[in-house]
Known about the structure:
Blueprint: E1 3-5, E2 25-31, E3 38-45, E4 51-55, H1 79-84, E5 88-90, E6 128-130, H2 138-143, H3 149-158, H4 162-170, E7 174-175, E8 190-191, E9 197-202, H5 211-223, E10 228-231, H6 238-248, E11 253-255, H7 257-264, H8 274-287, E12 291-294, H9 316-328, H10 333-336, H11 338-348, E13 351-354, H12 369-387, E14 392-396, H13 405-415, E15 421-424, H14 436-449, E16 454-456, H15 469-489, H16 495-507, H17 511-517, H18 521-531, H19 547-550, H20 552-563, H21 569-585
Parallel strand pairs: 9-10, 9-16, 10-11, 11-12, 12-13, 13-14, 14-15, 15-16
Antiparallel strand pairs: 1-2, 2-3, 3-4, 5-6, 7-8
Bound molecules: 5'-deoxyadenosine (5AD), (4-amino-2-methylpyrimidin-5-yl)methyl dihydrogen phosphate (MP5), iron/sulfur cluster and zinc ion (ZN).
(4-amino-2-methylpyrimidin-5-yl)methyl dihydrogen phosphate binds at residues 256, 293, 315-318, 355-357, 395, 422-424, 456.
Amino acid sequence: MTIQDARTPASDQDQSGPQQRTPGWHKGYVEGSRPDIRVPVRQVHLTNGKDVTLYDTSGPYTDPTIDTDVRRGLPPLRENWIIGRGDTEEYPGRPVRPEDDGIKHTSPRGGGLKNLDAVFPGRPRLPRRGRDGQAVTQLAYARRGEITPEMEYVAIRENVSPEAVREEIAAGRAVLPANVNHPEIEPMIIGKRFLVKVNANIGNSAVTSSIEEEVEKMTWATKWGADTVMDLSTGRNIHTTREWVLRNSPVPIGTVPLYQALEKVDGKAEELTWEIYKDTVIEQAEQGVDYMTVHAGALLPYVPLTARRKTGIVSRGGSIMAAWCLAHHKENFLYTNFEELCEILAAYDVTYSLGDGLRPGSIADANDAAQFAELKTLGELNTIAKRHDVQTMIEGPGHVPMHKIKENIDLQQEICEEAPFYTLGPLTTDVAPAYDHITSGIGAAMIAWWGTAMLCYVTPKEHLGLPNKDDVKTGVITYKIAAHAADLAKGHPGAQEWDDALSDARFEFRWEDQFNLAMDPDTAREFHDETLPAEPAKTAHFCSMCGPKFCSMKISQDIRREHGGDLKADEIEAGMQEKSKEFAASGNRVYLPLAD
Length: 596
Ligand SMILES: C[C@H]1O[C@@H](n2cnc3c(N)ncnc32)[C@H](O)[C@@H]1O
Ligand SMILES: Cc1ncc(COP(=O)(O)O)c(N)n1
Ligand code: SF4
Ligand SMILES: [Zn+2]
């Protein structure tokens, strides 16, 4: 594997600003079968002269040779691949309306958008869709036996063959979310045979945040390793916020169109209609949303099953659809219009994320009748979506104690023909608000080990408020740990190399290498330097935990240096026998009496 170098002379590098580069690594690219397939990697340079190559989600922001500007947006990496297939056409598209941003002409809420001058100033572009409404999905291509540039790209990223990628997509065991209107993304794949992925949720609410803050959360999340980002905005400027996020995101973007549809009817669930919903889906598909949560499995007859729950319906989408179903006493319109929705998504290659609108919101409600009734319906919908060549993943819970987690993934895999499972945690206990990244990180690691393909992060603010930039980082790092722990347990090829490199650096007291290989190098360095900030401490054979005389790794190294070379296995065995006899002679006591 040859890796191209994206380094520039240090003097050319701007180390200021929000996208400040972490020293000790640089961006490289692995080239595919053609020059426009260049897969980014993070090259960590060790002081022993070796390099460690890691997966990189940070996008062009960490490439010093690319001049990024959020007002212009990212370069359209996939544009030629999409046009080159010749199966899509540009068309005028749906005009953007004030109500897309929650602005009513007559409403006092109207008026100026906050920050970044509202309308995205970048590249004007006509939307694109499948010619004659045909399915232009990676699933359709994979089923026809075609290996797209996107598939080759993810094969390099995952270190597997392009054919393996095609097979997993064709079988519906993996999805490659890539809307034809989102050419900026670096393709990635979600499926149990691949690295476990992490999604970070961002977005404003009616109470707080601005467009600028949301764009910043998106770049921040991907810098720390988020593989996808969901914009779950529910406040003002939903359309414009999403435009800024999409044009600047190197990762696929997911949304829940129902949230924006609800804003269009002023938050009155009973006023929702299939027409308003459909119009919102088209609006978002034209913008380039890569996957959409659709709560089509929360059916009218299942709502009563939640009546005696401790925490009712905790899914936003689920509660909105339940309210609509009860108000009209009609079946969920997402379910009754599902086939038409499939045709729309197929024409843009929007991936379904079939929502778990009836997931449990407390330990007491886990794995109940309502939850599993919905899962069965999601299985039926998965089959219908596949018939339309729409890529599909299935959302999962929620709040589930450890002993009830495995049943969730086993049932989902069986009912949904191994479609990728995408779970929120699960949180393994309800008693630690402010630490729900941890209560859920535990469940996330377990469920990922058993085959969940993507983990939706939970931040320390869960149940308490809207996460800020710091919470986003904590959530992403926590979930990267869960995902990597699962990759190790699953024996994913290459996963352990990273651990081995860090273990070697640790044992050899290469402190800088230990920091640079860390998931969060900044915090690792800061913690070390809190007690031993001086430069010589960066090569010292101890840290402040045990100090120089009690550093077990130093003692262990000394043993090897003094005896390691000339100790043979049988001599070690003989030495052990000798010691064992001495121990017996002293009365087999571990603790000798204190001498006074
Ligand atoms: C489904 C999950 O989405 C999270 N969620 C909902 N809205 C937002 C937002 N604007 N930002 C971050 N997370 C959000 C909830 O906390 C829940 O855990
Ligand atoms: C993994 C995951 N992420 C996001 C949502 C959408 O949220 P909600 O169901 O509350 O509308 C979900 N259901 N599952
Ligand atoms: S997180 Fe807050 S706003 Fe959302 S469901 Fe819970 S209490 Fe309601
Ligand atoms: Zn919860």
